Amino acid sequence: MAAPAQRGFFGHPRALSTLFFTEMWERLSYYGMRALLVLFLVDSVNEGGFGLDDRTATAIYGLYTAGVYLAGLPGGWIADRLLGSQTAVLIGGLVIALGHVLLGLSGTPAVFYFGLLVIVLGTGLLKPNISALVGTLYPEGGARCDAGYTIFYLGVNLGGLFGPLMTATLAQRYGWHIGFLAAAVGMALGVGQFVRTRRHLGTAGLHPHSRSGVTGSSRGDWLIFTLTATMLLVVILLVWAGIVPISPVALQGGAINVIVAMAAAYFLYLLCFAGLDGVERRRVLVLLVLFIASSVFWAGFEQAGSSLNLFAERHTDRLIGSFEIPSGWFQSLNSTFIILCAPLLSALWVLLARRGRNVPVAIKFVCGLLGMAVGFLVMAAASKIVADGEMAGPVWLTLTYFFHTLGELCLSPVGMSATTKLAPQRFVGQSMGVWFVSLSLGNLIASRIAGDFDASNVAAMPGQYMAIFWFGAVAALTLLLLSPLVKRWTGGVE
What we know:
Blueprint: E1 7-9, E2 12-13, H1 15-42, H2 54-70, H3 72-83, H4 85-105, H5 109-136, H6 142-174, H7 176-197, H8 219-240, H9 248-272, H10 278-301, H11 307-315, E3 319-320, E4 323-324, H12 333-354, H13 361-387, H14 394-422, H15 428-451, H16 461-489
Antiparallel strand pairs: 1-2, 3-4
Helix pairs in contact: 1-2, 1-5, 1-6, 1-7, 2-5, 2-9, 2-15, 3-4, 3-5, 3-15, 4-5, 4-7, 5-14, 5-15, 6-7, 6-12, 6-14, 9-15, 10-13, 10-14, 10-15, 10-16, 12-14, 13-14, 13-16, 14-15
């Protein structure tokens, strides 16, 4: 039985409000902490940070943000096979809150990094499954499902708006650790909201499904989970004890290769060994194309928390009279623009569909890639000002985030919606996890790009930002040429 059909949240099922506000609080904690992470890592030890160089700091940042999304793949599997989506969301929220507490109370780098790992594991349980639950509210699919995901994305970005404003202000006034603890409070509020209102979901995502499609988990699935968890625990203990030394930069490069191999193996499994029919296989091929396009987009977009955050800190004139804007506040611009534009774009998709002019998924992705590319064209101009020896005005970052936001709205909520509609039903949770793996790969590539920026060589910045522009523009053109084929492979799914 699906979620109750009552309407009461912008004309959508009331259960959407449960997912909307839970995700809002989770994203408040995530984006709030993300706005601080690189700045904290590069800050001098005397000022409370770790005093790391840019390449190491951005590698750690990339590994963390990539891990958050990569964990969505096992998190989707755990929900599908062992817990059900509702329980996975609840446990994930509790684990995330614990991780933020560890960051706030940590006195050593080891505890801090362990806190990051705990957040990664909790987000892997929560993020893909709360997104998949949105899809269960719209069994009819179509433009209303796209609109529902866009409204859900509004909740994501309410959290993204207030999180950096809150944590950056507290960190500037009371210290880094108070900012991290504020993120823990946000996640705790999200868990409380979910517990109080989850009844609106009914039995949607309440039970797991075995590999045969029967409700309930199997002993074999629990054995796989136990063995994997044990291996992970052993690795953590070996690293913690210093027996297995790790280098963030080397781990970053290895992680990119591993993620590419994992994604390729999973798509190969779906196409060749999952027992899919011809229509399902063609739709999986569409998911593969969207996966690649998504990874390219996020490789540019996710400069936000690394190279663009450092640009705000070091090269942007942030003074308004005697008040200096915290650099972390610029991280709220993306969410601000989404809040302003998401309802309009959601209404546009529905209006076009009613007039028989529904925009194909591939074309929406093309628009997303172009938005990302144009944003870096703006940054190339801004960095030219810096290379000439002046500070850039805040309008340059504001324009960049505006174009990136337009691109994100065309790609991200549409991608989540398309995944739930195109994936075989018994693989929806896992496929949503794979969608977040594309974000994971994009984050890692983004951190590798950010690590190549040299704070002592600002003359190179214009060329580096132009390279990202061409990266996105060529990808957009390629997908545009492939769009007729992609549309046929969807098999009528809008």
